[in-house]
Amino acid sequence: MSRKSHCPLLTVHHGTATIAGYNGQKGGADVRRKVLAAGALAGFAATLCGCISVKAPDKPIVIELNINIKQEVVYRLAGDASQTIDKNKDIF
Amino acid sequence: MARTTAFSALIAAAVALPLAIAPVAALAQRDPAYAAARSAGQVGEKMDGYLGYVTPPSPALKAVVEDINLKRRAVYSEKAQAQKATVEEYAFTSGCLLIAQTQPGEKYQAPNGTWQTRTSAPPQRDSRCL
């Protein structure tokens, strides 16, 4: 989860926050203290830090437009849709 | 004899009638440009129930496909209303069926959004498809 971070304190990646040291290296006591502080006040730290990097995934982003369509609706409509396809062969 | 002739005429009419209808039924087939593009894998069935371009379309093909998609939308819209469903729900359900009905060699959109070529194996479909 911890990739190279442009942000010294906080990286938001896939909806989870990763708290890393400078350049992702394991830090000394000083960094650990910062990490603890950041962990306790992640939101506050984000404000102070001012650099939340949201990284795009490597794979293409699929925008799920049909997120609200339930399987039972598909089940209910399948019979009618099948007939519609058969009766309109020119456009299917 | 007269009865036999009349009977034969009746039979002839019964045989001729479907033949007369046949050319009308033939009109309800795919546009040749669409059929060719489909077989060539230039267009494919999308998950949302509409046709999509696998490769950049020629202006002529684009016009044909846009026309088909508009007609599909009109049909989905009418049928969805009758079924008290949304156009998107009806179109998505149709997309499930249309992807299932693709022939080997034709293109369809997989749930991850990529274009796939249909093989003899079942196509990759959305988990909500039946």
Strand content of chain A: 5-15%
Q: Globular, elongated, flat, extended or rod-shaped: what is the shape of chain B?
A: globular
SSE string of chain A, helices as H and strands as E: EEHHEH
Helix content of chain A: 40-55%
Brief summary:
Chain B: Residues 1-28 form the signal peptide. Chain A has 3 helices and 3 strands; from the N terminus they run ββααβα.
Layout of helices and strands:
The complex is a heterodimer of chains A (92) and B (130).
Chain A: E1 10-13, E2 16-19, H1 29-40, H2 42-49, E3 53-54, H3 71-87
Parallel strand pairs in A: 1-3
Antiparallel strand pairs in A: 1-2
Helix pairs in contact in A: 1-2
Chain B: H1 2-27, H2 32-39, E1 43-45, E2 51-53, H3 59-82, H4 87-100, E3 107-109, E4 115-117
Parallel strand pairs in B: 1-3
Antiparallel strand pairs in B: 1-2, 3-4
Helix pairs in contact in B: 3-4
What can you tell me about this protein's structure?
Chain B: Keywords: Signal. Chain B: It holds the Pfam family DUF1318. The complex is a heterodimer of chains A (92) and B (130). Chain A is α+β, with helices and mostly antiparallel strands and 92 residues long. Chain A has 3 helices and 3 strands; from the N terminus they run E-E-H-H-E-H. In chain A, strands 2-1-3 form a 3-stranded mixed β-sheet, covered by helices on one side. In chain A, a hairpin with a 2-residue loop joins strand 1 and strand 2. The longest helix of chain A is centred in the last third of the chain and has 17 residues. Chain B has 130 residues and is an alpha+beta fold. Chain B has a domain of 87 residues. A 4-stranded mixed β-sheet of chain B has the order 2-1-3-4. Chains A and B meet through helix 3 of A and helix 3 and helix 4 of B.
